[in-house]
Design brief:
CATH class of the largest domain: Mainly Beta
Subcellular location: Cell membrane
Keywords: Calcium, Cell adhesion, Cell membrane, Glycoprotein, Membrane, Repeat, Signal, Transmembrane, Transmembrane helix
Distance between the termini: 122 Å
Largest sheet: 5 strands, mixed
InterPro entries: Cadherin-like_dom (IPR002126), Cadherin-like_sf (IPR015919), Cadherin_C (IPR032455), Cadherin_CS (IPR020894), Cadherin_N (IPR013164), Protocadherin/Cadherin-CA (IPR050174)
Number of strands: 48
Shape: elongated
Strand order of the largest sheet: 1-2-8-7-4
Radius of gyration: 56 Å
Structural class: mainly beta
Organism: Poecile atricapillus
CATH superfamily of the largest domain: Cadherins
Protein name: Protocadherin gamma-C3
Length: about 750
């Protein structure tokens, strides 16, 4: 006999999916997110995995949706009492449920659970009432109760008895008492103003100690179960001599307020009763009567002094008040009663409890703001401000908390994410109550940011320059290109390829798609192709892929320049590959007015070949003075050691050539034939402003002037000094004969070589 109710909470269903989503969000914000409340009833002590309800049928949800939307059941509190089968939609009890254990001291026992659906998020509240079954018999606190009654007691006198306790409730709880047949006493029951049932023994006939000094009665308590259960106790009546005064309490009711964190042995209250009789008839002793077993565990009563002290740990969340009855009995057996009511005051002794309901451990970096990452609830067992809680996130993180309903919170993103900047987050959620002494608890949530292909590859250089010698071997590796991608996984996997250009012949080279190594496929000929450029692309493995390009420049010759000789070695420097001559420091008055530089250019062939050029530099105050010096002054020769000897020897050879024109002609023919057979030599440009594509004789003299204080200045060539040729010999191709050759050569000490 299960009982089921369904209550509509808010909204109505719509066939339009978008409208359903909007209605769902409104219900979350306004109606505590649940569209329906399910109520069921289940008797206690059912077997494990007992059937509770068919959730799929009651909600009208297809079975396929339960697994697809990850339907699950969550009970309130730390212990999960129910299980939902996603395949059948059946809700079952995980264990046998004992109502007296789950809901002690409560007439009704209702368990709250929630059913969660995802995609979209939906929460349905459910209740299961645990119905009581008659599984407990009434029990008296003592198997034998002893009453001492004066023989002078008049008929109609009433004597309280200990009540029986039954853990069951309702009809299964304690219903009535019965007393065994006897000629002196009857039984009376009643209900106090606070709803507690009491039991009294009523004297019907006067006692006579001399006739019968002791009576034994059987007291039976019966519940209303089917079949009924019962419990018994013996009541022993001791007839005593007359005692004409009974104890009297100072108060009929003692009311005490006590904090729940009161320590053991703390004084609660001191009850006091007086008896004007003398001797043993006036001596009063105290004892609990008609008091629950739990109250007897929490409080202890001193039989002599009447002091009640704390004996156990009080818990406001378990019971907010305790009621006790104290009996004061004198030596003659007369007694009186008073009530003690203890109100337990709540203190902030429970930290908030954070319970995760749903968690997404990995989200993509392109997730939009306000994406839900986790759903959790916060519960504090305290009351008032002590049970009021607030939540926060530690640190400056792109996440925020949004309260939803019934102490539930959503953890959402509040900013754009970037995996390349932060790949993972350790989020610490702190829940704090509002107590005077604030208590808090924390929950750590670890969230990983998954990669999205949002970064293209980047080459380490925009232009790569590689060199190779002509007549190279096939499949020669000449270098490599390198590109990196800030993404991860396949999004960072880079593949290289040559970009084909329409209308242009593809060069004989290739690039390894994985390593970026560059290979020349066939031998090259410098005279045909001195250099060429291609475009290399790097594409990642994303979908769609992102790419970047770089220029790959390949030359067949690699020239290097150096300063072979200088008047002031530290004044000038030569670019290693550009051949540009610049000042290395400021020109000072102490530097020689005439400077001579010999520049050497060398290729990297096997064997290496080289050539030289001489620069004459004049240091002047202005260009007018420089022009005057070049036109009118002859540079003073400086001793150059072996170099001077070589120049003198050259002049001797030139003089000899003037005398032997015929021999010179033969020499010229032989020299031209020899040059045509030898390899191409590196040459200097025709003029200082032309590109390196032309050629000059192997030796050339430049006249350059600088002003004092010049730093890193480019040369201004005022007047070129053409090379001198021996008499009778014509100038070579591209060469000119100068009328001032002999004078310049003489002034420079034979620097024409």
């Amino acid at each position: 006999g299960w009982i089921f109710w369904r209550e509509k909470a808010c909204g109505r269903r719509s066939g339009d999916r978008k409208r359903q989503v909007i209605l769902f969000i409104l219900c979350v914000c306004v109606c505590q997110s649940g569209a329906e409340t399910l109520r069921y009833s289940l008797p206690e002590e059912m077997e494990k995995d007992s059937f509770v309800a068919n959730i799929a049928k009651d909600l009208g949800v297809p079975l396929s949706q339960l697994a697809a939307r990850k339907a699950r059941v969550v009970s309130e509190g730390s212990e999960q009492l129910f299980r939902l089968n996603q395949n059948t939609g059946v809700l079952t009890a995980k264990e046998s449920l004992d109502r007296e254990e789950i809901c002690p001291q409560s007439d009704t026992c209702t368990l709250i659970f929630k059913i969660f659906f995802e995609n979209p998020l939906q929460l349905i509240r459910g209740e299961v009432e645990i119905r009581d079954v008659n599984d407990n018999s009434p029990v008296f606190p003592e198997k034998e109760m002893v009453l001492e009654i004066l023989e002078t007691a008049s008929p109609g006198s009433r004597f309280p008895l200990e009540s029986a306790q039954d853990k069951d409730v309702g009809i299964n709880g304690l219903q009535n008492y019965s007393l065994g047949p006897n000629p002196h006493f009857s039984l009376a029951t009643g209900t106090a103003k606070d709803g507690v049932k009491y039991l009294e023994l009523v004297l019907q006939r006067q006692l006579d100690r001399e006739e019968q000094g002791e009576l034994n009665l059987l007291l039976t308590a019966t519940d209303g179960g089917s079949p009924p259960r019962s419990g018994t106790a013996q009541v022993r009546i001791v007839v005593v001599d007359a005692n004409d005064n009974i104890p009297v309490f100072e108060r009929e009711t003692y009311e005490v307020r006590l904090a729940e964190n009161s320590p053991v042995e703390q004084l609660v209250v001191r009850v006091a009763a007086t008896d004007p009789d003398e001797g043993s008839n006036g001596k009063v002793r105290y004892a609990f009567t008609q008091t629950s077993e739990r109250a007897r565990q929490l409080f202890q009563l001193n039989a002599s002094t009447g002091e009640i002290r704390v004996a156990g740990k009080l818990d406001f969340e378990e019971a907010k008040s305790h009621k006790m009855v104290v009996k004061a009995t004198d030596g003659g057996g007369l007694s009186a009663h008073c009530k003690v009511q203890v109100e337990v005051l709540d203190v902030n002794d429970n930290a908030p409890d954070i319970a995760l309901t749903s968690l997404t451990t990995s989200i993509p970096e392109d997730a939009p703001p306000r994406t839900v990452v986790a759903l959790f609830s916060v519960r504090d067992r305290d009351s008032g401000d002590n049970g009021r809680t607030e939540c926060s996130i530690d640190g400056d993180l792109p996440f925020s908390l949004t309260p939803t309903f019934d102490n539930y919170y959503e953890l959402r993103t509040n900013a754009a994410l970037d995996r390349e900047r932060t790949a993972e987050y350790n989020i610490t959620i702190t829940a704090t109550d509002w107590g005077r002494k604030r208590l808090s608890s924390q929950e750590n949530i670890f969230v990983q940011i998954s990669d999205v292909n949002d970064n293209p590859p980047e080459f380490t250089q925009e232009v790569y320059t590689l060199s190779v010698t002509e007549n190279n071997s096939p499949m020669l590796r000449i270098g490599s290109v390198k590109a990196t991608d800030a993404d991860a996984g396949k999004n960072a996997r880079v593949n290289y390829a040559l970009v084909r250009q329409e209308g242009k012949e593809q060069p004989e080279m290739s690039v390894n798609s994985e390593t970026g190594d560059v290979y020349i496929l066939r031998p090259l000929d410098y005279e045909k192709v001195p250099s060429f450029e291609v475009t290399v692309s790097a594409a990642d493995g994303g979908s769609p892929p992102l790419s970047a390009q770089a220029v790959l420049r390949v030359v067949n010759a690699w020239l290097s320049y150096e300063l072979a000789k200088a008047t002031e070695p530290g004044l000038f420097r030569v670019g290693l590959h550009s051949g540009e001559v610049r000042t290395a420091r400021a020109v000072s008055e102490r530097d020689a007015a005439r400077q001579r530089l010999i520049v050497l250019v060398r290729d990297h062939g096997q064997p290496a070949r080289s050539a030289t050029a001489t620069l004459a530099v004049a240091l002047v105050d202005g260009f007018s003075e420089a022009h005057l010096r070049v036109s009118e002054e002859a540079p003073a020769a400086e001793p150059d050691g072996p170099l001077t000897l070589y120049l003198i020897a050259s002049l001797v050879c030139v003089s000899a050539l003037f005398l032997a024109t015929a021999v010179a002609a033969v020499v010229v023919k032989v020299r031209r034939a020899w040059r045509s057979e030898t390899d191409t030599l590196p040459t200097f440009p025709t003029t200082a402003t032309e590109s390196t594509a032309g050629s000059l004789p192997r030796s050339y003299v430049y006249d350059v002037c600088f002003a004092a204080g010049t730093v890193n200045s480019e040369f201004r060539f005022l007047r070129p000094l053409f090379p001198c040729f021996p008499a009778g010999l014509p100038p070579g191709p591209g060469q000119q004969r100068s009328s001032v050759c002999s004078q310049d050569a003489a002034n420079l000490g034979g620097e024409g070589d």
